[in-house]
Every structure is written in C-alpha cells, then in structure tokens.
Amino acid sequence: xxxxxxxxxxxxxxxxxxxxxxxxxxxxxxxxxxxxxxxxxxxxxxxxxxxxxxxxxxxxxxxxxxxxxxxxxxxxxxxxxxxxxxxxxxxxxxxxxxxxxxxxxxxxxxxxxxxxxxxxxxxxxxxxxxxxxxxxxxxxxxxxxxxxxxxxxxxxxxxxxxxxxxxxxxxxxxxxxxxxxxxxxxxxxxxxxxxxxxxxxxxxxxxxxxxxxxxxxxxxxxxxxxxxxxxxxxxxxxxxxxxxxxxxxxxxxxxxxxxxxxxxxxxxxx
Length: 270
What we know:
Blueprint: H1 10-29, H2 39-64, H3 68-73, H4 75-90, H5 94-102, H6 110-120, H7 135-142, H8 146-149, H9 165-191, H10 199-218, H11 242-269
Helix pairs in contact: 1-2, 1-9, 1-10, 2-4, 2-9, 4-6, 4-9, 9-10, 9-11
C-alpha cells in the first residue's frame, strides 16, 4: 500500500481560501444574539450550526490533501442539513416539530423534501429538485459505495486515493453555495419582517458576489476558467432571488461531478 504524499494544487488552494473567507464572513455576520423563542428557530439554528461545522471540516480535509474521501463523504450530510432546515421552516407542522424534538420523527426522503420545498418557494427555479437524479451517488460517497471505492486505486493498481482537482473544486464551490443559502435564510428567519429589508443577509450575498466575481472576471493566473461560475458576471445577485440566482453558478459543477460518478459506477457494474 502506497504512503500518502499530500499535494494541493495552487488552483484548488485558491478555491479553498475563497471558501474559507466566505465561511468566516458568514460566522461573523449572522446574528450573534439568538432569539430562540420557538421550537422551529431552535431546530433551524441547530442545523445551521451543523452545516457550518460540516463545511469547515470539508475545507480542512481538502486542504490537508490526505482525507479527500472523508471530505466527499460529508457533502451529502451538509446538503441534508440545509434541506432539513429549509423544510422545517417552510413545510413542517407543529406536530412534525414536536416529533423531531422527541426524537421519533423520520424526515421525508431527500427527493420528497425537495418537492415540498419547491411548492412553497416557487421562485427557486428547481434549486432543490435539481439534485434528485443524483441522490444515489451522494449516498454512495457518504456510505462507502462504488463512488468512493473506485477512487482508492491509481492507474498502476496501487491502493491510494485518486480524487481529481476538478471534483474537489466543485465540492468546495457547491457546499459553500449551500452554506450561504442557509445563512441568508437564517438571517431572514431570525429578523422576521420583510426579507429584502434584512441587512445581514444582504451583506452575506454582497460578500459572496464579490468573492466569486473576482474568481470569474479577474481570472487569476493560477486558476483556469471554472464553468460553474461563469454566469456570475451576467446577472447581479439579489437577496430576494438568491436561490434561483445561485443555481447556475455552483450547482452545475456539482452535477458534473455526480454525473461522472454515475457513469463510473455503471461502467463497473457492467
């Protein structure tokens, strides 16, 4: 079995640093004094806290270049936490929330949760349901499926992790986008009132736009063009339309990664 030889490319390191900057900005901007006066808020902020931790762990593991499989395995739990938080806020009944608190509730399956959320958020343009065809691959990365096992060998047959930079960048971008989406939602839930008048969520969106506009428009010399970020220059982000605006930039890359995983698994099964 070969030994680890950690190496992080300049391009990947740059993307990780961007994501870390966004992570830190979110932590510094979300409400510090929490008004947990309802069970719904209590559950949503707990899931937000979990999402923050998963995101930080993914970046830490990718930066080390020694634990890439573990970073990929955390992608679905992070997405789960975001979906559950939004579902609780928009769809859960008081009976659901009480059952969650009691520990005897089974959340809807991820595709069902996505459908329910989309019905309540008509302006998302399919943000939540876009992942439905690829749920199996997300499960595989989390639970040691072929999506993971096929990446434990190099071309010579040595046992070592073989995760390409493109996939790592797409995971970094997509998980950061989901974190920002939930941070914006949490700021607006905590503030109440009119979402467009909530300053913290607007600040988070502005910072996200600034960071990723720099990547695409400035095109640093050590970064190749990332297709999942292309549309950011074409239409400015707004807080009220955040979910549908973010979809083309960061989730397209995640879908490419999942599609490659699906193709690889199907080829091996045949």
